[in-house]
Amino acid sequence: xxxxxxxxxxxxxxxxxxxxxxxxxxxxxxxxxxxxxxxxxxxxxxxxxxxxxxxxxxxxxxxxxxxxxxxxxxxxxxxxxxxxxxxxxxxxxxxxxxxxxxxxxxxxxxxxxxxxxxxxxxxxxxxxxxxxxxxxxxxxxxxxxxxxxxxxxxxxxxxxxxxxxxxxxxxxxxxxxxxxxxxxxxxxxxxxxxxxxxxxxxxxxxxxxxxxxxxxxxxxxxxxxxxxxxxxxxxxxxxxxxxxxxxxxxxxxxxxxxxxxxxxxxxxxxxxxxxxxxxxxxxxxxxxxxxxxxxxxxxxxxxxxxxxxxxxxxxxxxxxxxxxxxxxxxxxxxxxxxxxxxxxxxxxxxxxxxxxxxxxxxxxxxxxxxxxxxxxx
Length: 377
What we know:
Blueprint: E1 11-15, H1 16-29, E2 34-35, E3 37-38, H2 40-44, H3 48-57, E4 62-65, H4 68-77, E5 82-85, H5 94-99, E6 102-106, H6 109-122, E7 129-133, E8 141-142, H7 146-156, E9 163-164, H8 176-188, E10 197-198, H9 202-207, E11 215-216, E12 239-251, E13 256-257, E14 263-264, E15 269-274, E16 296-299, E17 302-307, E18 315-318, E19 331-335, H10 341-347, H11 352-358, E20 365-368
Parallel strand pairs: 1-20, 2-11, 3-4, 4-5, 5-6, 6-7, 7-8, 7-9, 9-10
Antiparallel strand pairs: 1-12, 12-15, 12-19, 13-14, 15-18, 16-17, 17-18
């Protein structure tokens, strides 16, 4: 099924069945723990509403977004889900969270005080979670505040829906930081013995059942990306992206390609210009300049290199060694069976998360294997 078409051609195809298979695989690994789903950044670029509806249909009930606005949009798509807002409580917005059934993940004494005051004025406890910083030094209560938080909760009669933290180095399973954080988290839970706990992201889900606790929060693995460095990625690929060739030309050895004349041809070369640039999220860091290896794409199943600098709307590739006839309008695989999310990430010296959340630009998003009853609106 296709949601939109482009006159230019090409686009991003998202396999909803692959997302379901990945989520179910993670749910199996998590054992008796509940399995949530992280849908922040518009479902890592795949469309939070559609993915949320799809996962709800197969049993997911707990969802995590970054911002309250993401939560409001997701609430429209899955009215009965439990939705947590990882950014916490925006000052003076408690009523807005409550109106949309969003649970802020409270991360500071000021947020906790504001939420408890809101509950007092409402005359009832409105659900929220607590996030403790076990060493990441991002958002979260300091560990030394645990006793103070406990006293505030006891005085108010409020019990949080969940106690959370977040690993800094779970993608490196042998890293001492992960064991240290988990130890701190275990100690923290002594202050909240009857409250569900959650610390595991994708990598932690796949690393050890010791990190699963009551609920796990997979993200990147659900979308087919590599969660653990140095290991084969067992997840099903979710996304394909193809763009058309605009023009093909023959150039001679010694000629230069692209802005800054930064790449000089070492042989007579057949060049294809593809309709893709950094405005579409194809990183300028994928440029092939000087002696630097740039990005790789595939034409007719053959992997070929980027030539010269990636520009705003167009990028040159070397199709000299592609067998058979290649013509303008033919597709170039940016992501797919030949080029993975992590292939692009490695070439750009970044991570799959950034690739997924950036590659949108001007190309339509299409869905395949849409479950019966799941709306694409």
